[in-house]
């Protein structure tokens, strides 16, 4: 317990130092906050633009689609804020910084996450949370205590899922340093995939990404549970309520890949 507290204290010290350093340049930090939200604004605007030419997309109204987009963007942006900088690991491996991280008396994953915490991305998460809140209020949700709790749990579970994707794909850099674009296909590609109803996709693409990789359980299935709608694709209603559990196997697999990568890491000699 004492060792755990010491490690936790070390990581918190790194986080506080990062926060103080980034906030010390207030004007620069304010500009970063304002400009970073633009990407999420464009994601939401794209969904809205689709509904200027049709009343339904994949069988869902604008308010229902924005619930899915809000869930997906909340989950992704929270994961990107807390874990997303792990995608820089290929830079740490190439420059030899990973060697220094491994000899310090703290866990390497916690150190890497705390070394470059992108606080500027908090504006993206706050905007996505606002979109989700407004969409839920306008979507005529039959609110119950269970649905209120589920509306809070679903984005957090989705963030764990996306965090696992970030860590798992970044770990490939231990074997293949230039693997960044492959990882982006699953992280940023997953963000775009979860911003729309799964019913707009078809064939092998839907089977692989929605159900094989689990992206349907980040936003689409939880949204069905919140909206009280039956799944047009035929899954039972309990699948929506159980959707957050998909983050558990994802986190376990990502942890296994990370630990295997660290054990097999060989210094670049930089």
TrEMBL record:
<keyword id="KW-0812">Transmembrane</keyword>
<keyword id="KW-0472">Membrane</keyword>
<feature type="transmembrane region" description="Helical">
    <location>
        <begin position="151"/>
        <end position="177"/>
    </location>
</feature>
<feature type="transmembrane region" description="Helical">
    <location>
        <begin position="65"/>
        <end position="84"/>
    </location>
</feature>
<feature type="transmembrane region" description="Helical">
    <location>
        <begin position="29"/>
        <end position="53"/>
    </location>
</feature>
<feature type="transmembrane region" description="Helical">
    <location>
        <begin position="208"/>
        <end position="226"/>
    </location>
</feature>
<dbReference type="Pfam" id="PF06182">
    <property type="entry name" value="ABC2_membrane_6"/>
</dbReference>
<feature type="transmembrane region" description="Helical">
    <location>
        <begin position="122"/>
        <end position="139"/>
    </location>
</feature>
<protein>
    <submittedName>
        <fullName>ABC-2 type transport system permease protein</fullName>
    </submittedName>
</protein>
<keyword id="KW-1133">Transmembrane helix</keyword>
<feature type="transmembrane region" description="Helical">
    <location>
        <begin position="238"/>
        <end position="258"/>
    </location>
</feature>
<dbReference type="InterPro" id="IPR010390">
    <property type="entry name" value="ABC-2_transporter-like"/>
</dbReference>
